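Re: the 124-residue chain
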Amino acid sequence: QVHLVESAGGLVQPGGSLRLSCTASGNSPGFDGMGWYRQAPGKEREFVTEISSDGMTFYSDSVKGRFTISRDNTKTTVYLQMNSLKPEDTAVYYCHGYRIRKTFMNDREKHFEWGQGTQVTVSS
């Protein structure tokens, strides 16, 4: 019953900036964290960034120092500020929310819900 709605991406020049947002709606989304993966043509979907419910942030090495993830105080909207964009950042960006679920052996695993994806193109 939770939907993740992403803002539009866009086309930017190398070195430019773009800001994405993702909003979770529904009854008590209750995500343990949110973030983005991205997928470029011919490549597998790759992790970009996450922010956990306690505010810890994580970034892939490829975007660290250039991208910043943040959230509103309701923890239902996250933002991805992308600076110093490179052509290799071109991809469809998929917002996600995850919940931690305990397995049969009480291990933890992430269960994801996904936004619709938005195209980000970095090109001159």
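The first strand starts at residue 3 and ends at 6.
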